[in-house]
Amino acid sequence: MSTAEQGGIGTATDARAAASAGVDHGAAASLESDGWSHLFTPEHEELRAAARRWVQREVVPHVGAWEDAEWTPASIFRRAGELGFLGLAYPVELGGQGGTPVHEAVFQQELARSGSAGFAAALGAPMTIATPPVLKFGTPEQQRRWIPPVLAGEEVAALAITEPGTGSDVAGVQTTARRVAGGFVVSGEKCYITGGVRAHRYVTAVKTSEAGGHGGISFLVIERGPQPEGAEDDPEALGADRGDGITARPLQKLGWHASDTALVSFEDVFVPEEHLLGELHGAFKLIMSNFAWERISMALGAVAGMEAVLEQTMAFVAERRAFGRRIADFQGTRWALAEMGTELEACRALTYEALRKHALGVVTPQEVAMTKLLTQRAMVDIADRCLQLHGGAGYMKEYGIERALRDARLGPIGGGTDEIMKDVIGRLLGV
Amino acid sequence: MATDSVLKPDHAASGRHPIFTDEHDELRASIRAYVEKELAPHADEWEETTFPDSVFRRMGELGYLGLHYPEEYGGQGGDYATQIVLAEEMSRSHSGGLVMGVAVHTDMANPPLKLLGTHEQKLRYLVPALKGEKIACLGITEPGAGSDVAGIQTTAVKDGDEWVVNGSKLYITNGHRADYIVLVVKTDPDAGYGGFSLLLVDMDSPGVVREKRLEKLGMHASDTALLAFQDVRVPAENLLGEEGKGFYHIMWELQGERLIAAAGAVAAADRLMERTLDFARDRQAFGRSIGKFQGIRWKFAEMATKIEAGRQMTYNTAWRVMQGEYPVREISMAKLYTSRMACEVADECLQIHGGAGYMKEYGIERAWRDLRLNRIGAGTDETLLEVIGRSYGL
Prior knowledge:
- The complex is a heterodimer.
- By secondary structure, chain A is an alpha+beta fold.
- Chain A contains 16 helices and ten strands.
- Chain A has a four-stranded mixed sheet with strand order 1-4-5-8.
- The two termini of chain A are 45 Å apart.
- Chain B has twelve helices and ten strands.
- Chain B is globular and about 80 Å long.
- Chain B has helices spanning 22-39, 43-49, 54-61, 80-90, 96-116, 119-131, 246-282, 294-322, 328-353, 355-358, 364-371, 381-391, and strands spanning 136-139, 155-159, 162-173, 180-186, 196-202, 208-213, 224-235, 239-240, 284-285, 288-289.
- Chain B is an alpha+beta fold.
- In chain B, α8 runs antiparallel to α9.
- In chain B, the strands form three sheets. Chain B has a four-stranded mixed sheet, with helices on one face. Chain B has a four-stranded antiparallel sheet with strand order 2-3-7-6, covered by helices on one side. A two-stranded antiparallel sheet of chain B has the order 9-10.
- Chain B folds into three domains: 3-134, Butyryl-Coa Dehydrogenase, subunit A, domain 1, CATH 1.10.540; 137-244, Butyryl-CoA Dehydrogenase, subunit A, domain 2, CATH 2.40.110.10; 248-391, Butyryl-CoA Dehydrogenase, subunit A, domain 3 (Up-down Bundle), CATH 1.20.140.
- The chains are: A alpha+beta, B alpha+beta.
- Chains A and B meet through α1, α2, α11, α12 and α13 of A and α7, α8, α9 and α12 of B.
């Protein structure tokens, strides 16, 4: 097919003529959009540039090794903390930068561009999912104690909700906390806990009433004993019981290799009274309150991840030749890129609007669920189609596309499955 | 782009997209009241007869034909978002043909006149157009050229201080009722893309033949014509814009039209889903309302998600247009995504309605037929994929 439009923008003369008629056909560029300056100000863009430089220089050269080791070293947490990246949206008095969720969003997107969702999750989870409940519901003393070390990258916190028998259905939590003098004794198991092996503390959902369920779950901050000397990057040593009744075992998985994902067991672990976060039996509300940010964060990561994998694929098809021409010159390739670019733009529009509203505190659970649903599935689809365009190279570890696809597959599961998202949206539509 | 021109999020009404203000909300309420009271009740009747010309006069009287046109020529002087509001609220007429007939006038044929017209041309054509006293149509497509605008064969040859036009135009919305046409003609057969020009042609000129009222799958409320031009003499001063720049002028026009089409598709999908939600709440099967089945609820969740994505694409692209940008790629994406989405939503809503969806009475089959045009008109899906694919400059 030869359309007028494509013909008309084919030559420099035509492009200039088009521009003179008020038409700017846009130059080939990165897939990042500059059309969101109502949300991302020049200050955000500076942060983006700084984070990108850091990721390119200090992360990208190592992610392959970290993926292979199935471990992200403790030093990179400290480095990120030192640079102020881990406390962007936290108050200055707690060691943060005093920014907004938009600042954190920018950083999350740059983490996603590292090419390892496992690394992004390992580094991001403490600030994005594990510590917000402390900021929102902790007493000033709890905040002073548990927030600054996380923002400094000195300590890692993990959010522990999912169990072998319950995931998205949070009310089914079975890990129990028995009342004893001066506190609680906790027994049970938590699984798929990001950062669970290296964590210094767990923000843990526990059953505090006989019945459990929505009105019987509480949050306890459970601290591990002191780390064994020199073991900060030794998963086996870190996971062993330190005399605190806690063991953490790393789980192997399809993707997210650089992230430690653990099965954590609590055996009669004593937790002092003052480690109760928020109200007794009040955790359900706390858990729900951070879903919005967790899900929007995942969407932000997917948007940046799609950009990265598409950019890489465009570079590939522009080089690779078949049947006497570049594969970019086949209409089938062009259309595939156009389809993916359109899907990316739809995801971006939905995600950035959710971010804008979240920053103003007016986003609805329905909008959040839509955003997560659309973006996580799209990331899988796009990674799969990009792998296809790479052919054999896509299947090889070297190009990082197979990792992108494996990593993406967690999206429709973690943070609330697609099925849960559809239930939430459907219910809120009033049917 | 200067940052001081950036619209800041409106904290007082932060749920609303930043392109809209209280004024847009008020405008929306009045257009909605008009559409629901004066248009929607006639939707069924106008499917049979096409909608009457009096709709233009009434809308002109209410100021709705000139929302984003200069006050100097009888417009309201509003911003681009007012056109988005109009496109969205017109969906409440439940008549795709009516929406299209009006949109051809407000968002396709007349924007080039606003941008390129001389003062005299605006006085002669735009002023009565905004009052609804003259109706406009746009002549691009021909029997041998559609999305490939460069294939246009209709010619205009200079003869003294007149152009002599010969050729034919196909699928021309409003072609039977129009008082003038914004016509794309070839003025220099050897100049390639630089050989096209736009002419304003009075439809009562000798030699203009309104050949045939075309029957079609949907959009029955609109009239669609095959037009012939046989030695039609057009005064030289009716050249619109620059001679030889017609191709670029029309490429510009297509961008605005496409984004309005996107807004219309989102709104149409919204209307269909609202009606289908009502249906699913009422309709009982196996002892409960069908909306209580998880399978049906998930269909709604998927539809709502895609509608919302289409809406946000459209709004943010509109915001960029309002900042003076011309994001061709994103406009094409918004049109492509929303047209497909609306067709999918229409089909799924028809399915949820079951037998009722297949019946004329419920209006779902009509929307299904009407929306099918969105993937063809104003640039086919395939043309847009090509535009987007090429925009990456690989």
